Amino acid sequence: NFMDITKLPFDTEEMLAGLKPWIECESPTYDPMAVNRMMDLAAYDLASLATIERIPGRMGFGGCLRARFPHPDMGKPGILIAGHMDTVHPVGTLNVLPFQRKGTKCYGPGIQDMKGGNYVCVEAIMQLIQAGFQTPLPITVLFTPDEEVGTPSTRELIEHEAARNKYILVPEPAREDGGAVIGRYAIARFNLRTVGTPSHSGAHLKEGRSAIAAMARKIGEIEAMTDDDCTFSVGVINGGQWLNCVSSECTAQALTMAKTQEDLDRGIAGMMALMDKGDSVQFEVTRGVTRPVWKPNQPGTMMLYEMAHDIAKDLGFNLSAASSGGGSDGNFTGYLGIPTLDSIGVRGAGLHTLNEHIEVDSLVERARLIASMLVRLS
Q1: pTM for the complete prediction?
Q2: pLDDT confidence of 3, banded at 50, 70, 90?
């Protein structure tokens, strides 16, 4: 069976051509209509292969796409491929980061994180179906709209879908050395707010208490809490409306990441302790969404990894594995103890930047890896 997989006619040029419309359909998380346009494209590409369901979005986010492929055991526990279609790049990023092939690399917003990996999975399944392969297990693909902001609206859906399956594959981009992910750190998000006292910043500056200045001081305190076991960063800040008015409100968002739940709990306690109902400026901290620790080296996950490692060896490359910082929806499925192999998507670099790109030769490489796993898992 495996030898036949190597004969599947995966074609780099055809895959780039198919991926191009996905990249040129920009889909930032906070633009639900844009994300839904991306789901429309994926639904069309999957429609001839699978039964498609569209799950409406909620909480102001886009919707989900669920595809189930024909199989005698359809509806029984099988393989779930889980990917997100939202990106961090605002609409208009194509003007500065167009879909463009340059030698061995191909650039574009979201091409590495993680439309490239999502597309590779669709291509792998399509080639198997066209070649008449029957996978031992039924396959479900779930594409979601909100991973880049912590998956606030679809966590339950992912967990319910995962619980109905035996194995989870997450085609997030490969690690820097091309390796897979077998565990992930815990992440907590916080919403911060300072409330000051307004005044005219020209005529009555002394009467005001600046919410922006107070937030700036707090950011210094928060980021200074970072140590080897728990990191703190502030990545979003909004404040003030008029330059000639001392700011009465400022909001920000902070992220804390830790390798163990104990370290995360300590970090959360440290953040909550910064709350200050001071007389002149109040500082409020509220909890945002959390990703639980996915402990590495769980037996089911290691079985998946060892299979992938063996396949990669047959395909002529080495697939390493490690626990990873940075969250993904693999956090949820791994935390639940369901065998999960993450970051088996494309190789590349620059995710979340204007240098985001993939290594073009990883498209066929990863398609063969994933197709082989789908044929072997039982």
Answers
A1: 0.95
A2: low
